[in-house]
Amino acid sequence: MELHPLRVAEVAPVTDDSVAITFDVPDELRDAYDFAHGQHLVLVREAGGEELRRTYSICAPAGSGTLRVAVKRLEGGAFSSWAHSDLRAGDVLDVMTPGGRFTTALDPAHRRRYAAIAAGSGITPILSIAATILEREPDSEVALAYGNRTSGSIMFLEELEDLKDRHPQRFQLFHVLSREPQPAELLSGRLDRERLARFFDTLLLPDEVDEWFLCGPLELIEGARALLRERGVPGERIHREVFHADRPAPAARAAAARAAAAGDGRAQTEGAATVTAVLGGRASTLSVPRAGETILDALLAVRSDAPYACKGGVCGTCRCRVVAGETRMDLSYALEEAEIDSGFVLACQAHPVSDTVTVDFDQ
Prior knowledge:
Elements: E1 3-15, E2 18-24, E3 40-47, E4 50-57, E5 67-72, H1 78-85, E6 92-96, E7 113-119, H2 123-136, E8 141-148, H3 157-166, E9 171-177, H4 193-201, E10 211-217, H5 218-230, E11 238-243, H6 250-263, E12 272-279, E13 282-289, H7 295-300, E14 319-324, E15 327-329, H8 337-341, E16 344-346, E17 350-352, E18 356-360
Parallel strand pairs: 7-8, 7-10, 8-9, 10-11, 12-18
Antiparallel strand pairs: 1-2, 1-6, 2-5, 3-4, 3-6, 12-13, 14-16, 14-18, 15-17
Helix pairs in contact: 4-5
């Protein structure tokens, strides 16, 4: 993935606390910014001498020619607050080319049923996924359970209703509101584990769904995934993307390291290891402490081109593969079980265990 300066074409309100940002993409960069449904962008800006990187999902159908993200204002959020108050059409932002694996291969011949569960700004990749599926697979269906506080806080309400109007037989939309009464009791309240279980008993029967897409806060996503697994849904049919997971403090990282050492006699947390990172076809060798600093932190000191965004184990931008040696991770929200089994780690969460480690960012 590469960074390019892109001009902002439009900043449009979506709700009282969210805006949609559309970018102009010059013709020579069209191929670079071609995206799959469910992918994201990393936006970069300087603020007070500090580089801020934030990951935002693309909320436009794949192949539409529109490159758009939505930013929800977070309390104390340096980037999101600035985007709401100061960002204007005509401004230029550094934008990383699209990335992410929260997607699936589509085929016009498919006749499938997809189901999505989202809350709040978790709708952004789901909107892209649903619209693209409905366009590219004319015989497939999509069902969406979308949780919010009130009808006024529903992001892209009109676009969702338009999808429903254009595909009345193929798109089911269930708004679940926690602070506004709904005609049906099932749709009134938080989209928590108990309510999800009722959905899975009635409106979203797991046996009838081919693939699942889950996007929102960690508690919702992990709860939904656990329920689906309990009901026999294979992990490879559940796609998930976590929004707003807190990054553990250094003390928590140290505690995790001590716990790893206590639970595994091979794990070492003292001293440093020699780590070789392959990136862009070039290998860099560095010394990385076994506790505290992550492989990404150490790599950034010598390779400014190391890919990263959230540093919280959520976006997956820093995904790499361990091809030699052994590592451990603090968190792994952005990786599926199959990826971990294949040796992939998140550099922002990874620490060396063995004396020597080689990680490859090019795989």
